Amino acid sequence: MADEAERDMAIRGTVAIGADHAGFALKEWLKARLAESGYGILDVGTHSADSVDYPDFAHAVGDALVSGKANRGVLICGTGIGVSIAANRNPAVRAALCQNVDAARLARQHNDANVLALGARLLDRDIAAACVDVFLATAYEGGRHDRRLAKLSPRPAGDSEPDGTGSLQSLRREGV
Ligand code: RB5
Q1: 86 C-beta closer than 6 A to ligand 1
Q2: Looking at ligand 1, which residue's alpha carbon is closest to its atom 7?
Q3: Which residue puts its alpha carbon closest to atom 9 of ligand 1?
Q4: Is the CB of 24 under 6 A from ligand 1?
Q5: Could you count the other beta carbons within 10 Å of the beta carbon of residue 47?
Q6: Contact (Cβ atoms closer than 8 angstroms) between residue 20 and residue 54
Q7: Per residue in 97-107, pLDDT tens?
Q8: Residue having the nearest C-alpha atom to atom 10 of ligand 1
Q9: How do residues 105-140 score in pLDDT, each as one tens digit?
Q10: What is the 77 CA–ligand 1 centroid distance (Å)?
Q11: What's the pTM value of the predicted model, to 2 decimals?
Q12: Quick check: 121 and 79 in contact, CB under 8 A?
């Protein structure tokens, strides 16, 4: 039985999961479901409902992917927005904020997303669970999407507009 569980874990891989206080309860519930399904779990916290800062957990999930301790990530905050912004600061991460199963499937098929971001305050927990299941079970389609993913690499400063001025610089000029 223990051998079977270990084999399932090896096949399914390890999911790094993290949340802030707003996502803590959902994280605990999802974690138990994932363990039952045979996934390895790396819980990077938080470990209580006390107020914390979501970037800390988003960065910890990114670190787990970079080090190879996990091959997928799930991040949860109140809206999912904060953790997705923070996680995507890491060039090795493609975090997708999903609010339904179709988005979770397409995030894998088209974007090869490696982190699923969820908003605990906006999502029914059964939908959150269905998003996780589909995200972890769906393969990247490759093909035409490879070309687009290649264009997601971080861009050199000043290279974000065809004339080379950079969108940040233009925004500053325009006082936005
Ligand atoms: C915490 O109150 C909340 O701001 C956080 O969980 C998240 O929703 C931020 O994007």
Answers
A1: no
A2: 78
A3: 82
A4: no
A5: 12
A6: yes
A7: 999 999 999 99
A8: 82
A9: 999 999 999 999 999 999 999 999 999 999 999 999
A10: 5
A11: 0.88
A12: yes
Q: How far apart are the first and last CA of the chain?
A: 61
- Residue 30 amino acid letter: L
Q: Which residue has the tokens 């819980």?
A: 43
Q: Are 12 and 34 in contact (CB under 8 A)?
A: no
Here the tokens at position 156 are: 């050199």
Say what the pLDDT of residue 156 is: 76
Point out the ligand 1 atom lying closest to the alpha carbon of residue 83: 10
- 145 tagged catalytic: no
C-alpha to C-alpha distance for 116 and 87, rounded to whole angstroms:
10
Distance CA 69, CA 60 (A): 11
Atom of ligand 1 minimally distant from the CA of 82: 10
Which CATH homologous superfamily contains domain 2-141?
Answer: Sugar-phosphate isomerase, RpiB/LacA/LacB (3.40.1400.10)
Confirm whether 21 is a catalytic residue: no
